[in-house]
Amino acid sequence: MLDDLKYIHEHDVIDTLGIAEKQWQQLSQTFQTNQAEVSVDNIVLAGMGGSALAGLVSQSWPGYQVPFELVRNYDVPAYVSPRTYFIASSYSGDTEETLSALAQAEAKGAKIAVISGGDKLAEIARQKGYPLALIPKVQQPRYAVLYDLKALVTLLVSAGLSDPARLTELEAVGPFLQQAVANWLPTVRTSSNPAKALALECIGKSVVVYAGPKLYPAAYKWKISFNENAKQVAWVGQYPEFNHNEFIGWSKQPVDKPYAVIELLSSFENERIQKRFEVSGRLLSGLWPNPHLVTVEGSSLIEQLLWAIAFGDFVTLYTALLNGLNPAPVDLVESFKKELA
Q1: Is pLDDT of 330 > 90?
Q2: For range 85-109, the mean pLDDT
Q3: How far apart are CA 189 and CA 257, in angstroms?
Q4: SS3 label, residue 193
Q5: What mean pLDDT value characterizes the chain?
Q6: 62 close to 165: Cβ distance less than 8 angstroms
Q7: SS3 per residue for 212-279
Q8: Helix 96-107 vs helix 119-128: angle between axes, to the nearest 10 degrees?
Q9: On the CB side of 286, how many CA atoms lie within 13 Å of its CA?
């Protein structure tokens, strides 16, 4: 089925596989933000769904020299103050949780910046003179993760909160990703295509994705992509916390475990994290589904993060096609927003 290009074209109506193939090009996007340097004690980024992913990635790379918190709800932390650098991120520009958090940050006198694709949030930024990174149009927010990450790093560098070399490092990942995705394209047959092969293992199962702290942002993106691309239930977990609770849960019930377990393995994780994967797999052998091990490629942490994200995109898009679905629409989310309104 996945080697039938006619079948793929019939179901992948807007060519999401083509979007995934070209996603590396987003790293060359430049943003004119008018962001000046700031002196702050902490950073808060408010965003939901795909618009929060860049903030999650940034906790792993490039990281922060001051406390950072990712807010995925209506309310900002009590400590937000004029010494806070607050970033409101919403691709649609109309995310009600993010707009609520922005209003609260404004009331507390925080230093504001905006990442958006337009509409209300972008208009607020223009009216009030906030630094604005305007994201180019894409089909769905989850397909703009690299745009968002480039915008976020641009803001942080311009604000004097990150090393300018990080922008150069991020842009340099593009050719590496372009070469990597060539192995996962629809024209590469299943027998030689690891993304297609892993998708076949996920059909009819709830997917659980595990990673250590370094790759957790990528694992969380896999979870989102299984939910939204494949319309399939998925969860995400993180080592070492896994060994303090969830580890025991796999040992007994339910006896019949209709799950696919995927582990993202990075050479940059703490050596004790790597040991935990090994020991956990041995102790749980026969008690849980044998994990599908994905040894992530890349010579730097940012290469490994973006390689893992890109590979997950292809795996979940192929899973959607195996489910007989168009990967792009999220009709239930749109219906929910209308009902909530």
Answers
A1: no
A2: 97
A3: 30
A4: coil
A5: 96
A6: no
A7: CCCCHHHHHHHHHHHHHCCCCCEEEEECCHHHHCHHHHCCCCCCCCCEEEEEEECCCCCHHHHHHHHH
A8: 20
A9: 2
Q: Amino acid identity of 186?
A: P
Q: Per the confidence metrics, is the pTM higher than 0.90?
A: yes
Dihedral (CA of 296, 13, 136, 22) sign: positive
- Using one digit for the tens of pLDDT, what is the confidence trace for 242-284? 999 999 999 988 888 899 999 999 999 999 999 999 999 999 9
In contact, 45 and 89? CB cutoff 8 Å: yes
Domains located in the chain, CATH noted: 31-171 (3.40.50.10490), 176-322 (3.40.50.10490)
Tell me how far apart the terminal alpha carbons of the chain are, to the nearest angstrom: 40
Residue 196 DSSP code = H
Q: What is the pLDDT of residues 138-153, one digit of tens each?
A: 888 889 999 999 999 9
Q: Is the pLDDT of residue 333 over 90?
A: no
Residue in the structure block whose two tokens are 């703009």: 144
Please spell the DSSP secondary structure of 42-106, one letter per residue. Answer: EEEEE--GGGGHHHHHHHHTT--SS-EEEE-SS---TT--TTEEEEEEESSS--HHHHHHHHHHH
Omega before 254 cis (within 30°)?
A: yes
